[in-house]
Write a structure and sequence with these properties.
Number of strands: 0
Order of helices and strands: HHHHHHHHHHHHHH
Number of helices: 14
CATH topology: ABC transporter involved in vitamin B12 uptake, BtuC
Shape: globular
Structural class: mainly alpha
CATH class: Mainly Alpha
Largest sheet: none
Helix content: over 70%
Length: 299
């Protein structure tokens, strides 16, 4: 156990991961905001599907010796465009994702098998390499984060309305199809950010779990995104801070913290329900948040 934990050089190590902490905080903000709409639109499966093609793009870039971040972004955007254009309805979307996932994963495995470089680079695409965020990669992360935040700010109100009550939104003339495509592309960018930091296998821990936890404890369309961001940032940054004093990779700590937050929120929501507070058992906070969002988003 003493070999597992060693905090003797913690201060020096902390100075070496400043870029990683900034990247983790950015990813937490993006994941928390995007995750709320992922929950409202039931697109958890889409996150995993986009991650597989993002992984394939990053693996192809690694094989070709070009910018891995660029390859990850391009792979995500291709997946986002296909899902957004071909799968507006939930049933169609899941079918498209089910086809894309094994294709993307197979391509990624092929490219990695052909790559003759360091094995650590291969492993990092799957489970993340947050400690090695360089200045150039941080610049990519910041730029893409700004694009995602600005994009969400522009479409937040109509997207909330369409996500909460698509039939009424369509009756009022809102372009549900266009908003779906735009959001899916923003989701693709967010997934590409997550793949570069926590890897293709662990993106759900920051783009799904924090929002799911937030929606277990509040039905407020204002408070839910705030809590989602707080939970995601806590998971990402906290995972780094804890892992620095151990010999264990960072990603397991990120996923564990994220899961523990969700578990506490879920248990807390059940306890509140038993005492007669908040939502009924058959109307969880997620559904209440959707209903409240529908009222707030009315034009």
């Amino acid at each position: 156990m003493s070999d597992l934990f060693d905090f003797s050089d913690y201060g020096r190590l902390l100075e070496l991961v400043q870029n990683s902490l900034i990247a983790a905080a950015l990813l937490g903000v993006i994941g928390g905001l995007v995750g709320v709409f992922v929950q409202m639109r039931d697109m958890q499966f889409a996150v995993h599907g986009i991650a597989e093609l993002s992984f394939a793009g990053a693996a192809a870039a690694l094989l070709l010796g070009i910018n891995v971040a660029l390859g990850s972004v391009l792979g995500s955007l291709v997946a986002g465009a296909l899902i957004g254009a071909l799968g507006i309805r939930a049933r169609d979307r899941n079918s498209v994702i089910g086809v894309l996932m094994p294709f993307g994963l197979g391509l990624g495995v092929l490219f990695l098998s052909l790559y003759e470089g360091r094995a650590a680079n291969k492993f990092g695409l799957l489970t993340g390499q947050v400690v090695s965020v360089a200045g150039q990669q941080l610049g990519w992360l910041v730029s893409l984060s700004v694009v995602v935040v600005v994009g969400l700010a522009v479409i937040w109100r109509p997207l909330t309305f369409v996500s909460a009550d698509p039939e009424v939104a369509a009756a009022r003339g809102l372009p549900a199809g266009l908003l779906s495509v735009v959001f899916t592309m923003l989701l693709a960018l967010a997934v590409s950010l997550a793949v570069q930091v926590v890897g293709a296998l662990l993106v759900l821990s920051l783009l799904v779990t924090p929002a799911a936890a937030a929606l277990r404890v509040t039905s407020s369309p204002v408070l839910a995104p705030v809590l989602s961001v707080v939970f995601a940032v806590t998971s990402a940054v906290g995972g780094i801070l804890v892992a620095l004093g151990t010999s264990v990779p960072i990603s397991p700590f990120v996923t564990t913290i994220s899961f523990l937050i969700y578990l506490v929120c879920r248990l807390g929501s059940r306890r509140r329900t038993r005492r007669g507070w908040g939502s009924r058992d058959d109307e969880p906070a997620e559904q209440s948040a959707v209903d409240n969002s529908s009222h707030m988003a009315l034009p």
